Amino acid sequence: MKEATADAILAAAAAVFARDGLHAAKMESIAEQAGVSVGTLYNHFTDRAALLDALRVKRRQVMLERLDAAQAPVAKRPAREQLRAFVTAVFAHAAEQDAFVRTLVQLPEDPARKSRMMAELHRRLTVIIDRGIKDGDIRAEGRAFYPALLLGMVRGALDSLREDAAASLPAAAWAEEILRVFLKGIEVE
Question: What does the angle CA 39 – CA 43 – CA 46 come to, to the nearest 5 degrees?
Answer without folding.
Answer: 105
